[in-house]
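[#protein-structures] MJ: dropping Dihydroxyacetone kinase subunit DhaL here for a structure pass
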Amino acid sequence: MTMEKIPFEKIKEAFSKVVENLEKNRQYLNDLDSPIGDSDHGESVCNAFQKVKEAVDKFPADRRDIGALLQEAGKAIIFSGGAAMGPLYGTAFMDAGKAVVGKEELNKEDVLAMWKAFAQGIQRRGQVQPGEKTMYDTIYPSLQAMEKAFSEGKSLQEMLQEAIKAAKAGMESTKDMLSKRGRSSRLGERSIGHIDPGAASSYFIIEAFFGSLIE
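AK: finished. structure tokens for Dihydroxyacetone kinase subunit DhaL:
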């Protein structure tokens, strides 16, 4: 069965899948963070998305506005106090929500607009560029892959699959990068050889979010 539109319920469910995937990888994310950070990235990101799930669960049952739902998710992350990550993801979800406000279902154009706004939110708030060993190195390639699939006339399902694949490659590429951002940038050359924890958690979010929309 080909999927041409994503209904509100699917987006709501996707947040639960994200929480599950992050919880499953909580320890791995903490371990990734230990050579180059505070060993608590898994805790921070899991706690932040637990707050998101609570906000999504509380969203009025009679309201089916995907944009408003994404904005509620963004607010929940901002107020979760998740260190540097909170404002970044918060801004990204708020911007993604603005791009699809009022919509009860998303078509290909909507999904692309939503993801473009999400990526631009991270870039603007974090003042980041590709190649700086951050979550953006996962998110930006996934957007590029989605744009390419869209321009080639591929299905919504293929667009999401391409985005997941590119996000994984993006995450893995951070292993060979020199960190230019955050605490790990102080390590200089020693930051090389480790996957960036933020890039990894971004991949787990994308994998679960887009993956559940394909199911």
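MJ: nice. Residues 108-126 form the longest helix (19 residues).
AK: one more thing. The chain has one domain: 6-214.
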